């Protein structure tokens, strides 16, 4: 990474602590990613994004901020990117996937909490994430109890706007969600000083839609047997999708997909022998590569993730029908409220999605992977297991965190599961 010390200092990054974080990542990335064989050439771009993780993009954000652009941080796929873009701001989905931040998070939050929430808090409290430090505002949501209450603590460090996500999907919930989106529009207009119009919203919808299409194209390619790309590489691409420049990201991903299409043609007739795994559950924020890395070190490949760093991020498009703000807000509200997160009751749509993906992706086994202390997903895991077993779909459940302490144990369990398939 180049020399960005001046920039980090300006952003208020704790340089000493940050050095420790930067020392861990290259080795971890090298061991996990660069040891893979026969990676597509198109992954070079994504490698360079990681190599420059706190450099190039932070500098880009800084240049934009000098021109008056606002940077808005998010932690959930419910926050509509379209609105942030339409207001002329930049959205960054913040990481929260490293064990490194947990210790600082525990200084202000209880220990028996989901590691994602502790990590997001620790990144800010410890001042070690230049993305977080670049944010003018954070958009929180009332998805789970842990996050809902964590925003109150985070608000002491950075302005937070909280969107109320309904917990059910009845007509009145759609109305509540549409009203939250309207309020979000007002908030973004106030923050940026820019009015969101039908034109600016439609343009933003197009940008986001192109990004979703490219991700869908990548996932469709993973349906081939063998998949032309590893689960690890796909996961990295999804994680980068949250903070890279959306237009550049889409272009680079489409270039990679062109290459993968060629690979598929060359691979014709070779069906591969690896077991095909679907992962469902809680999101895997950067740099959480733990489970993929374990699975793919065995005779298996992850070919789809039914989670928020997977299909929930890009499935279903926002309809661009309509010429009024009211209509476009309804379209946005409809698309987002169709995300099947365990924060909803009931949440049967998630099981329908898993069952559909099992067929579409030719899945041998499902791994339901949840972060420790995530109550909604932990409770839902029993119905997911029952519904899949009723359909003779093999499934195993894993609860874990960001530490590597249980990696050996997880590997043994996954090995036994693969043998059984
Ligand atoms: S739409 S999954 S991104 S809420 S893992 S913090 S739920 S205790 S991340 Fe999520 Fe939005 Fe739902 Fe997706 Fe809470 Fe669970 Fe932790 Fe979670």
Automatic annotation (TrEMBL):
It comes from the Bacteria. Keywords: Iron, Iron-sulfur, Metal-binding. The keyword Iron-sulfur applies. GO terms for molecular function: hydro-lyase activity; iron-sulfur cluster binding. Its cofactor is [4Fe-4S] cluster. InterPro entries: FldB/FldC_alpha/beta (IPR010327), YjiM-like (IPR047678). The keyword Acyltransferase does not apply. Belongs to the FldB/FldC dehydratase alpha/beta subunit family. This is 2-hydroxyacyl-CoA dehydratase.
């Amino acid at each position: 990474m180049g020399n960005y010390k001046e920039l980090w200092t300006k952003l208020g990054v704790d340089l000493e602590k940050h050095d420790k974080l930067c020392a861990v990542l290259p080795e971890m990335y090298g061991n996990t990613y660069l040891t893979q064989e026969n990676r597509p050439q198109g992954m070079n771009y994504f490698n360079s994004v990681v190599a420059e993780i706190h450099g190039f993009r932070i500098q880009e954000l800084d240049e934009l901020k000098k021109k008056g652009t606002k940077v808005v941080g998010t932690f959930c796929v419910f926050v509509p990117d379209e609105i942030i873009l339409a207001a002329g701001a930049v959205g960054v989905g913040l990481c929260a996937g490293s064990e490194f931040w947990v210790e600082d998070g525990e200084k202000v939050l209880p220990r028996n909490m989901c590691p994602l929430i502790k990590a997001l808090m620790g990144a800010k409290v410890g001042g070690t994430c230049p993305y977080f430090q670049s944010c003018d505002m954070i958009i929180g949501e009332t998805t789970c109890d842990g996050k809902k209450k964590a925003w109150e603590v985070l608000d002491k460090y950075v302005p937070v706007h909280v969107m109320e996500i309904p917990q059910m999907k009845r007509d009145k919930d759609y109305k509540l969600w549409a009203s939250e989106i309207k309020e979000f529009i007002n908030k973004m207009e106030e923050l940026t000083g820019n009015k969101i119009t039908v034109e600016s919203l439609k343009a933003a919808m197009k940008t986001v839609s192109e990004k979703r299409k490219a991700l869908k194209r990548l996932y469709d390619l993973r349906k081939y047997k063998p998949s032309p790309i590893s689960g690890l590489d796909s996961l990295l691409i999804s994680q980068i999708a949250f903070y890279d420049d959306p237009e550049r990201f889409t272009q680079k991903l489409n270039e990679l997909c062109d290459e993968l299409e060629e690979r598929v043609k060359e691979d014709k007739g070779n069906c591969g022998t690896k077991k095909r795994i679907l992962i469902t559950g809680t999101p895997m924020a950067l740099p959480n590569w733990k489970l993929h890395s374990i699975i793919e070190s065995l005779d298996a490949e992850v070919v789809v993730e039914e989670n928020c760093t997977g299909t929930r991020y890009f499935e279903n498009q926002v309809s661009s029908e309509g010429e009024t703000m009211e209509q476009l807000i309804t379209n946005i509200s409809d698309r987002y409220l169709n995300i099947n997160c365990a924060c909803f009751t009931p949440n049967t749509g998630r099981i329908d999605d898993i069952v559909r993906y099992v067929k579409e992706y030719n899945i041998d086994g499902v791994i339901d992977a949840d972060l420790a202390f995530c109550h909604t997903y932990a409770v839902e895991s029993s119905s997911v297991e029952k519904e899949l077993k009723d359909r003779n779909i093999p499934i195993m459940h894993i609860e874990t965190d960001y530490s590597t302490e249980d990696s050996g144990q997880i590997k043994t369990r996954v090995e036994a599961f693969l043998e059984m398939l």
